[in-house]
Design brief:
With 422 residues, the chain is mostly helical. It has helices spanning 2-11, 18-49, 52-79, 82-105, 111-139, 145-174, 176-196, 210-223, 225-240, 248-255, 260-282, 290-310, 314-342, 345-361, 363-377, 379-411, 416-419. The protein has two domains: 7-197, Growth Hormone, Chain: A, CATH 1.20.1250.20; 212-422, Up-down Bundle (Growth Hormone, Chain: A), CATH 1.20.1250.20. The two termini are 28 Å apart.
Amino acid sequence: MRRRLGRAGVTFRALNHRNFALFFAGQGLSLCGTWMQSLAQSWLVYRLTGSPFLLGLVGFVGQAPVLAFGLFGGLLADRWPRRQLLVTTQTLSLLQAALLAGLTLSGRITVGWILALAALLGTINALDMPVRQSLVADLVPRSDLPSAIGLNSSVFNVARILGPSLAGVIVAFAGEGLCFLINAVSFLVVIACLLAIRITPTPRTAHESPASLLAEGLRYAWQTPHVRALLTLIAVLSLTAMPYAVLLPVYAGEILKTGPGGLGALMAATGVGALVGALQIARRGSIRGLGTVIAKAAALFGLSLLALAASTAFWLALLAIIAVGYGMVTSMAGTNTLLQSLVPDSLRGRVMSLYTIVFFGLAPFGSLLAGTVASHIGTPLTIALGGIIAIISAGFFWRALPGIRRHVRETGLLPPEEFAAH
């Protein structure tokens, strides 16, 4: 019993730090609003047009800016105070949601406006996400980073379950505009929490040109074994394995013979597995052995996709997709934790911008690839192919671990007790 209580204390100990507790509270509310807006926007596009192509186009223009501008977000995070930058991006997000709400509630909304505002939000997010990722490491000591990143991922996945559920009810009874308005108001809480955070400013060098700073970040990521291996693993998973999600509607309808309710249950089950995986990372007392955990989680992700592809019974698919969510988020949150722990603060923003690019920026292209492949070989085989590639990628990462440990040990990035099982 004491051991369990001790583990619980480790899981939530990042909340003992006032700055992180404020950040966590603001994120929890705002992410619910973000997921509400996401569902309401998709439904609005479908209601106005009935076009699957336009649904996909709105999703694409909302994600593509991450690939185009993500590196600049990392550069900003390394050159200017991160808290102030985040206040700016959150204010811009508030204005975007408020404009979307105003146009919708007044009946003036068009698909053109939705596309333009989706592109605007995508550009804001491209700058926001590297700053947000980097700021977490400023709020807690390094020993509590696993807890902070795991809790951050947990609140994201809880919001992924609650936000769409609330949005479905609100859209049915009051329309999409109210969801957008609620999201806009939620940003006020985030901004208030960010303004209440107190961080000692870290001196940052800004003498070099932006081009040389970007080149420095890219060179560091490529020449540093652990960074290169982690980013490569996430890039492959983002392109080939994670796009299973865009095929779920087809899989639910054509293979499982279920409707929207069944699809919702599959998405909720993914969120449950993801939440368990995030808490698994949060309860770690250090990053010892985390490289091994990432490799095993990526392999489990792939094996679970194979099980999902082979499932024709709904209850089997539910079990498989819980494991999919667990393996996916454990590998992603674990990678985030290792990068934040092993990268120097002066380069953290640029490295985390690369993480954002390979995680989020490649997603629309992975979705496009999955849709194209599925149209030729079918949904189950496409999901299975993604699983096979995930397993192979996990194997390559596993083989790279001894070299990564050796590099970490030789460069003195961690104290001896940390790198032993890293």
